[in-house]
Amino acid sequence: DGRTRCSNFWAPTGGIAVAEEGEDNSTAMLKRAGFVRQSHSGVFHLMPLGLKVQEKLERLIDNAMQSIGASKLSLSSISSEGLWEKSGRLAKYPELLRIKDRKDSRFILSPTHEEEITELVSPLVKSYKDLPLRLYQISRKYRDELRPRQGLLRAKEFLMKDLYTFDTTPENALQTYLETKAAYERFFDSLGLGYVVAEADSGAMGGTLSHEYQFISPIGEDTVVRCTKCDFIANEEVLPSDLSDGIRSATATEEPRCPKCSKGSLRSERAIEVGHTFHLGTRYSEPLNVTVADLYDQQVPLQMGCHGIGISRIIAAATSLLSTDKGLRWPFSLAPFKVVVMDTHGTEDDAMAVYDALSKPHPDLDDPGVLKDGEIILDDRDKSLGWKLKDADLIGYPIAIILGKKWKETGCVDI
């Protein structure tokens, strides 16, 4: 009949009481609430509820990328070892998942696509007139984790948005970086979750400037430090060794001073990295010999940037930040459904009427039709109201509308 109903939406909830050995509680809760299932070590299936959360994240990311003029594409997950040898990264990336075909050709399942996108752009961009160019994708990435842990936070297969930017001059590339950083901040603002932007080390990715987008969480694998007086925030990895040792040392007599203002002291917190922006410069264009003609008709190497958002990581991180012992607590921006309407015996027809009324645009609302496009679900299952309420808590709908005893007596719903 066109209505989204729990009776025909597959959400196998329950059945998992506690976390398995080596598993964090947030992953156990995602499994128990019917969002994911683990297939192998470090490999997960996304269930219908989990897919709806993922699709919401993708739409928010699409909006952010389109705001800076980025075009969406889809690169193959397979790259060649030869290309990675050419860039100098093959020996520096021990977690590559490697495969061979029947001809013994050597390939990798890409954890990231700097080499491939540079090779793709090389014959197609010849002049400064073709730039700036901003290309992004949302795709599965692969990493041969020695010890997968914490569910989606450290998995062998994960979903990521990666943006690659190309400019003629260092000045233009830096401007692109700042515009991308601003778009990232708008995206993370839209999630309704607290985050920090930290100065970061570029690591194996290369380049000279990078920032991480972190959720503060005790289960995080990163350590960020903040100044008590100014706006300085950084990953501990970028600090001089004497400062980072002082922060970690339990015997330090005083906290290290801030390297930016020299007035405040540095405090450390655990955090989950969910995004990273890198200003690469010519890190990949020079070894792969990719140049364009500049304004003076001189061949110059492309100036590049790469910028990632861990989509599956955000799902896991949001769960760890917001879940309770009763279930998940999704913000409106990520909830698989914003509203669930629950009927009880004798109110089935009325519940459908409420569902229909909420699904249609309303002239008195500033945002008419806010519950269109799959934002509302009808729990019409032949279960007790108590069971439905517990299941709704587990899944984490922001709003539950109940047609129970009060409806029968006074025509009022419980919210």
From TrEMBL:
CDD domains, alphabetized: ProRS_core_prok
Cellular component annotations (GO), alphabetically ordered: mitochondrion
EC class (word): ligase
One of the Pfam families matching this protein, by short name: HGTP_anticodon
Keywords: Aminoacyl-tRNA synthetase, ATP-binding, Ligase, Nucleotide-binding, Protein biosynthesis
Domain Aminoacyl-transfer RNA synthetases class-II family profile residues, every copy: 42-331
Cross-referenced InterPro entries: aa-tRNA-synt_IIb, aa-tRNA-synth_II, aa-tRNA-synth_II/BPL/LPL, Anticodon-bd, Anticodon-bd_dom_sf, Pro-tRNA-ligase_IIa, Pro-tRNA_synthetase, ProRS_core_prok
Descriptive protein name: proline--tRNA ligase
Biological source species: Rhizodiscina lignyota
